[in-house]
Specification:
By secondary structure, the protein is an alpha/beta fold. The chain has three domains: about 300 residues, Rossmann fold (3-Layer(aba) Sandwich); about 90 residues; about 70 residues, no CATH class. The protein is built from 18 helices and 14 strands. The protein has a twelve-stranded mixed sheet, with helices on both faces. The protein is elongated, with a radius of gyration of 32 Å. It starts with 5 loop residues before the first strand and ends with a helix. The model has no long low-confidence stretch (mean pLDDT about 90).
Length: about 500
């Protein structure tokens, strides 16, 4: 069943293959809970790895971690292998690297606040339009004043600074509403409660570390431990979108290749689209359209095809549909819509079959020849070679410590960034005030001007204000006297 340049997915009336030339045209794996989506994901990941293509996949329940261990030749797997003619069927482990935003079940993944950018961060914080505008101003000021935003503390310090400088910077950047700053600060507290402090920081992820090829020529499978991350669904979705954005921005244009440079599996994809504002949807659509030219294939996994917006779904050309249940009229409408997305098979009642598929069965339509979708077929999915189910904690620890990246990301770095720069400015202003006389300088600031110790900017003192008012009063008196003399000289003293 091994064919050069193709991945054996399963067997219908004929073997079903995913053509590696067309694998970066993206894909969609759907089906109700418990119908075999995770095993199908594992089969595809193993196929890509065996073909020398690196993979990134989110592991929602922990089951996908078994791909790093040798599978067990269980009876139902051997039976399926025999049914589809997969002989010899061998079990083996695949080269894997475990990652975890929290650094507990894999190497930590971090990004700086600057890398995340205001658009994705606004999505993460659930900001309204006005608050998003303030956040954009903060990022622009950080860029103009050369202040790196590494972690949440940097962003919080910058927001406090621009709130105190609101009038000063409004003419250049726009109004800074203190209420909006306060709202953003409260959102940051919520984000910290969800564990975002683990994600923001350095060393930041080098996206090229996902493109590793093992010494035996197989692509490394990067498995993200996402079970804890799923407790904050918006953080999970935004994090994976950030990864896609980083791939799109970092990798060079390569056009069509014999096989992808990387394949990205996005499980529980509906979380990305739930309540997403239009700018974010535009970003998702843009990335899905353009990342293909970077040699990256994206495969969304979700329960129902309707979870994916039409503008994105139209770009998902390789499709595997597991069973859908019809408990309500809305469910039936969803099944009818799903059936119509396939290239129809005259020998198959697609709407009926979708509800009858057994676990490990799927309707499959993959791109072939010059890029046209194949006729949909009822297919038995091949058994995976790695373990079905999670690895033990001891096995996971062994994979982590054996990883070529062990030690690269484990220790958090703390370099000078916005928080430290702003603190240095305040300290320098305070020292300048102290050096010029301490209490005397304070008194001078009150009576005759000086500099604000916190910001270092000049401020008008009480004496200076009184002097200016006295000067204006004298000017008005002199002007009045001159006017009276002129009038008297003209009129000769007459009224």
């Amino acid at each position: 069943m091994i064919v050069e340049g193709k991945i054996f997915v399963g067997k219908s009336s004929k073997p079903e293959y995913l053509d590696l030339r067309l694998a970066n045209r993206h894909g969609l794996i759907t089906g109700a809970t418990g119908t075999g989506k995770t095993v199908t994901l594992q089969v595809l990941a193993e196929g890509f790895s065996a073909a020398g293509v690196p993979v990134f996949a989110a592991d929602i329940k922990g089951d996908l971690s078994g791909i790093a261990a040798v599978g067990e030749p269980k009876d139902f797997l051997l039976k399926r292998a025999h049914e589809i003619g997969l002989e010899p069927y061998e079990n083996r482990a695949f080269p894997s690297i475990f990652w975890d935003v929290f650094g507990e079940q894999g190497h930590p993944i971090r990004a700086t606040v600057t890398e995340m950018g205001p658009l994705l961060l606004s999505r993460l914080l659930e900001l309204n339009e006005v608050q998003e505008g303030v956040l954009n101003i903060a990022f622009r000021i950080a860029s103009d004043e050369k202040m790196p935003l590494v972690d949440i503390d940097d962003l919080r310090a910058l927001l406090n600074d621009i709130a105190s400088r609101g009038k000063e910077i409004s003419t250049k950047y726009g109004n800074i509403a203190t209420t909006s700053v306060g709202a953003i600060q409260r959102r940051l507290l919520v984000l910290e409660e969800q564990g975002a402090t683990h994600f923001f920081g350095e060393p930041a992820l080098d996206i090229n570390d996902f493109l590793r090829i093992a010494p035996d020529g197989r692509g490394v499978i990067n498995v993200l431990a996402a079970d804890k991350l799923m407790e904050a669904p918006r953080v999970y979705a935004t994090f994976l979108l950030w990864l896609l954005t980083k791939l799109w921005q970092t990798l060079p244009e390569v056009g069509d290749l014999p096989k992808p440079k990387l394949v990205f599996f996005f499980d529980e994809a509906h979380l990305l689209f739930d309540d997403a504002p239009k700018p974010l949807m535009d970003r998702v659509e843009q990335i899905a359209r353009l990342v293909r030219s970077k040699g990256v294939g994206v495969y969304f996994i979700t329960q129902n095809p309707a979870d994916v917006p039409r503008t994105v779904a139209s770009q998902l050309n390789n499709r595997i549909q597991h069973r859908l249940n019809a408990f309500t009229p809305q469910d039936q409408a969803g099944i009818d819509a799903a059936a119509k997305t396939f290239r129809q098979n005259p020998q198959l009642n697609t709407e009926k079959v979708i509800k009858e598929l057994k676990v490990g069965e799927a309707l499959v339509s993959l791109l072939e020849n010059k890029g046209e979708p194949s006729i949909v077929q009822r297919t038995l999915i091949r058994p995976p070679e790695g373990r079905i189910g999670p690895v033990s904690q001891e096995e996971r620890r062994g994979v982590i410590e054996y990883s070529p990246y062990y030690g690269k990301y484990e220790e958090r770095l703390d370099r000078e960034s916005a928080k430290e720069i702003l603190a240095q400015r305040a300290n320098a202003a305070a020292k300048e005030a102290e050096a010029s006389g301490g209490v005397g300088d304070w008194l001078g600031g009150v009576l005759g001007g000086g500099r604000n110790p916190a910001t270092g900017r000049r401020q008008q003192g009480m004496g200076e204000m009184v002097g200016k008012e006295l000067q204006r009063s004298i000017s008005r008196t002199v002007a009045t006297t001159i006017k009276n003399i002129i009038i008297k000289s003209i009129t000769g003293g007459r009224k």
